[in-house]
């Protein structure tokens, strides 16, 4: 394995004061002065040396413990279904479905035909889901479920009774059952560059691969990049760091629908939006959650850039199979400008590590998040979910048939 040789040469360290040291293949120590950016050479002291050695140890352990999952039958993501449905191991009753109806849109598959409640809060989101449901309806037994198309999960472990509600994103504080977001096919955040939403993951995969091939690692700008609206204040430290050190970070706020003045973009005029493909011009890309999980995360990996993923609370169905320090750099919520700067200086001065993690992130998304994996996950989810129903569903005459997919 490539990381075994990496461990021998670069990931085992003994400390020499004021120097960075590694253990060679023959077991001898090699110490040398670390070549760093000229921004703050005085800060590369023993304390910082220790921090960097600690980071390298974390990365070493992460790779040593990581096992690549099989690409067969979306097996990377099957454990998410198992864990989500474990809450319902005693069965799902008609009463539970009835109690959950107000939390989403009711769907049924009866005699291999797809039905849906007449009203959908977000038609494009329902259409994005129905693309997959319609494709597999002939393989699913009679079933019914409540699908939440809101941004926020619905069934809190602390304030609600157990109810089976499908949601695209959640934290550990919710019972909701994860399903692949509508944006794999349609919808997603609507911005100037994508007025109908991101959508069509299959097309983005191809366009981003082309962009990543055009902007190879050697051609990428050696700065961190972010564009997005000020959904949360968690993004502020990166924006402020960019204003102080533009040679290190290029980060700026854009408008969103709630924008009223420059106060909404941290007292600077909003920046122009940047296409996903243009993100590939940069070596380091930051991802922040929005109201819930961010739709952009999967796209960033396909740039073959190193992804800095901020926060670990909010997840989509494919997140758990990806591992910090193997596929991305984890950043805790609330990190200061200085802490972010230290992380960036680490990867900029250890590009072999940065590039290898970037490649691992790209390979995972490219190999384990194809459209067929999304369809496979839906099929497994509905089959396993349907086995938990304690009754035989019958057609609800309030629903209308979905006769074709988008």
Automatic annotation (TrEMBL):
Residues 139-392 form the Glycosyl transferase CAP10 domain. Residues 1-18 form the signal peptide. Pathway: Protein modification; protein glycosylation. The keyword Nucleotide-binding does not apply. It holds the Pfam family Glyco_transf_90. It comes from the Eukaryota. GO terms for cellular component: endoplasmic reticulum lumen. The keyword Translocase does not apply. GO terms for biological process: positive regulation of Notch signaling pathway; protein O-linked glycosylation. Protein O-glucosyltransferase. Catalyzes the reaction that attaches glucose through an O-glycosidic linkage to a conserved serine residue found in the consensus sequence C-X-S-X-[PA]-C in epidermal growth factor-like repeats. Regulates Notch signaling by glucosylating Notch in the ER, glucosylation is required for the correct folding and cleavage of Notch. PANTHER family: KDEL LYS-ASP-GLU-LEU CONTAINING - RELATED, PROTEIN O-GLUCOSYLTRANSFERASE 1. Belongs to the glycosyltransferase 90 family. This is O-glucosyltransferase rumi homolog isoform X3. The gene is LOC113206384.
């Amino acid at each position: 394995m490539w990381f075994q040789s990496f461990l021998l040469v670069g990931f085992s360290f003994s400390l020499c004061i004021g120097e960075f040291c590694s253990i060679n293949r023959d077991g001898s120590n090699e110490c040398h002065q670390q070549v760093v950016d000229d921004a703050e050479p005085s800060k590369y002291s023993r304390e910082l040396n220790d921090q960097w050695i600690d980071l390298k140890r974390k990365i070493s352990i992460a790779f040593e413990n990581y096992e690549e999952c099989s690409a067969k039958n979306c097996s990377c993501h099957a454990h998410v279904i198992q864990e989500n449905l474990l809450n319902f191991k005693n069965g799902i009753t008609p009463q539970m479905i009835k109690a959950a109806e107000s939390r989403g849109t009711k769907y049924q598959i009866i005699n291999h035909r797809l039905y849906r409640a007449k009203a959908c809060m977000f038609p494009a989101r329902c259409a994005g889901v129905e693309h997959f449901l319609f494709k597999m309806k002939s393989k699913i037994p009679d079933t019914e479920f409540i699908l939440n198309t809101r941004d926020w999960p619905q069934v809190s472990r602390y304030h609600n009774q157990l109810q089976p509600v499908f949601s695209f994103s959640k934290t550990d504080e919710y019972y909701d059952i994860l399903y692949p977001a509508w944006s794999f096919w349609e919808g997603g955040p609507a911005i100037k560059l994508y007025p109908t939403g991101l959508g069509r993951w299959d097309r983005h995969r191809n366009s981003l691969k082309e962009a990543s091939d055009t902007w190879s690692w050697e051609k990428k700008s050696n700065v961190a990049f972010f564009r997005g609206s000020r959904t949360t204040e968690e993004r502020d430290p990166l924006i402020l760091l960019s204003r102080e050190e533009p040679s290190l970070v290029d980060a700026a706020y854009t408008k969103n629908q709630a924008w009223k003045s420059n106060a909404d973009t941290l007292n600077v005029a909003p920046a122009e939006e940047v296409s996903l493909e243009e993100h590939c011009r940069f070596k380091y890309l930051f991802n922040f959650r929005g109201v819930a999980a961010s739709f952009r995360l999967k796209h960033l990996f396909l740039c073959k850039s190193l992804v800095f993923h901020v926060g670990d609370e909010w997840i989509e169905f494919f997140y758990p199979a990806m591992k910090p320090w193997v596929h991305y750099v984890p950043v805790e919520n609330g990190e200061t400008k200085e802490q972010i700067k230290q992380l960036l200086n680490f990867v900029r001065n250890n590009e072999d590590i940065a590039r290898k993690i970037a490649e691992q992130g790209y390979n995972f998304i490219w190999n384990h998040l194809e459209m067929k994996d999304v369809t496979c996950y839906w099929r497994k989810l509905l089959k396993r979910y349907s086995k938990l129903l304690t009754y035989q569903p019958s057609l609800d005459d309030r629903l209308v048939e979905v006769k074709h997919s988008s």
